[in-house]
Automatic annotation (TrEMBL):
Transmembrane stretches, start-end: 16-35
The record's free-text note on cofactor binding: Binds 1 zinc ion per subunit.
Family: Belongs to the MsrB Met sulfoxide reductase family.
E.C. number: 1.8.4.12
Name assigned to this protein: Peptide-methionine (R)-S-oxide reductase
Region listing for Disordered, in residue ranges: 201-228
Superkingdom field: Eukaryota
Length: 228
């Protein structure tokens, strides 16, 4: 039988208080560490500096201010199809708005002539002529092929204001846009390699011709290729 004398209450309090304090402060400490880690990579991303920090997948998007209004895009794919076609990293970057670690992407130091396309839908996004080395560790471009090919959205995650870039055709997350690029635009499109695919110059030219020629486009479809 429990005795509610002063000694019993004192001993109960001695055992209960440390456990209560631990349960209260431990989650706060973990959250603080995760927020700092996510903030560091976002800040490096914004300042054009390298970082080996992991991407910010560990925190719910709502806590990062990453909530985005639902929008219907011209091209859509089922989640099943996307998970089959994309690697886990490509899916995380384009569909969950992730960020790859600096200097780890396939196209960070890529210098071949050609066109960079959306890895999800194949839309033309950047020309190799506009690619430059920003020192950030992510592929950087000072211009896009067509103004309407990329949609810009305000991003207030990590307590800072940035401009998110997404593919205007399918809504895939690409990266962010900054105003510290070279002339003539002064822009720096800081893009994740995992959100891009690359078409060498000759291939890109033939693809453009096929798009302009209905007969060629029909031939392409007969080869079993999925239209973007």
């Amino acid at each position: 039988m429990y005795r509610a004398d002063s000694g019993g209450l004192s001993r109960t309090t001695q055992h209960f208080m440390p456990a209560s304090l631990f349960c209260f402060f431990f989650p706060l400490c973990v959250m603080a560490v995760l927020l700092r880690r996510g903030f560091v990579i976002a800040r490096h991303h914004a300042l054009g500096q390298g970082s080996s920090s992991v991407c910010h997948r560990a925190l719910p998007a709502v806590l990062l201010g990453a909530h985005r209004t639902k929008k219907t895009w011209p091209v859509s794919f089922s989640q099943e199809d996307l998970r089959k076609r994309l690697t886990p990293m490509q899916y995380h970057i384009t569909q969950e708005r992730g960020t790859e670690s600096a200097f780890t992407g396939e196209f960070a130091h890529h210098k071949d002539d050609g066109t960079y396309t959306c890895v999800v839908c194949g839309a033309f996004l950047f020309s190799s002529n506009s690619k430059f080395d920003s020192g950030s560790g992510w592929p950087s471009f000072f211009d896009i092929i067509k103004e309407e090919s990329i949609t810009l959205t305000d991003d207030f995650s990590y307590g800072m204001h940035r401009v998110e870039t997404t593919c205007s055709q399918c809504g895939a997350h690409l990266g962010h846009l900054f105003d510290d690029g070279p002339r003539p635009t002064g822009k720096r499109y800081c893009i994740n390699s995992a959100s891009l695919a690359f078409q060498p110059k000759d291939t890109a030219s033939s693809t453009s011709s096929s798009t302009a020629n209905p007969g060629a486009a029909h031939s392409s479809e007969s080869d079993g290729k999925t239209e973007p």
